[in-house]
Structure formats: C-alpha cells, structure tokens
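Technical note accompanying the year-one report. For the benefit of new consortium partners, we illustrate the data format agreed upon in the data management plan: each record pairs a sequence with a structure-token string. No post-processing was applied to the example shown here.
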Amino acid sequence: MTRATSLPNPDRPKPDQPNPLAPNPLASDLRASDLRVSDLRASDLRASDLRASDPIPVDVVDQVRDTCLCLATQRAARLLARRFDRLFALLGLTNGQFSMLVALSGNWSPRLGELALFLAMDQARVTAAVKTLQRSELIALAPDKDDARARRPALTDTGRKVLAQATPLWRNEHRKVQALVPGQDAAALADILGQLG
C-alpha cells in the first residue's frame, strides 16, 4: 500500500514520456484533461505563449504537480480517507461519519448549518449524512428550542457506544500515520491546514 505521506517527485519527463504525470503513482486521480488553459490566470500565461488547442507546457504541469497546495492536500486527503475508511469499515462507519460523531460527542449542540461550517461541508451534504446516521440510530434530531423550524443533531446511546469503539482504532492508526512524518507535530500540521481555509 502506498504510504499516506509518500508524495514522490518523479524525474523530469523524457521525450518518450509525453505525459509527465504518468510516472507518478499518486497522480492516478489527475488526468491531463483536468489541466485546462481556462484554469490558468492571465498573469501566469500570456495568450501569445499558448493557443487554446495547445497542450499545457511540461513546466506548467511540473509546477502544479510539485507546488500546488490544493493538489497536494487533495492527494493526501484521498489517501488518508481510504485508509481510515478501511479501518472504520469494521464498525460500519466511514471516516467522514467518524468525524461527524466526534464533532457531536461533546457539549456542543450545533444546528445543521453550524455543523456544516465546522466540517467544511455544504449543508445539503451534511443533511444527507445526518439522515444516514439517523437511520443507523447513531444520531437523533431534536427540535431547536429557539427555532421550531431548525433541528439539532445529537448522539444516541448507540452512537456513543460505536464512537467509543472507534476511538481507540483511530488513535492507533493515527499514531501510525504520525510515524510517517517524523519530526512533525500533528497538531501543528492540522493548524497549518486549518489556516488554508
């Protein structure tokens, strides 16, 4: 299995390798067609440098591959999500559902919109996720005492039991992930990523 933090920088492509992303095993989620001229800022590329029908220059692809924070975090997020999905599958959870249960496990009783903001999700997706957990009887929706139209999700007893089982699994797996980046503090890294939002 590819390690979660392994983001190799392949050698500059050779003439017989027209696609510079091909040698990179972590680039399977990125197609050459995903890089369009329209995605580039005018300040980065003059019209005289590239016609709409031309392929993206190799140095631009290299720059995106090696320096794009969005691409790097997308790669890491996909790898980590798959890793933790496999872990929590034992309990019938996904990594996203685990995060939602954790968010609801303390004294915080958010509205759906507040939960969406915390998880950086749109409200429609949060509503769908809450309904799934509600069907599994891990979450219950209670009326908002200040607004009869609003509902506040809360963990059920079953949800707390499942979360109690999932937490040590997460802690052990997170320790393994942390070991892949020696010398880096997980809280500091999470803080840096939080600043990007």
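Partners are asked to follow this layout when depositing records. Residues 1-38 have pLDDT under 50 and may be disordered.
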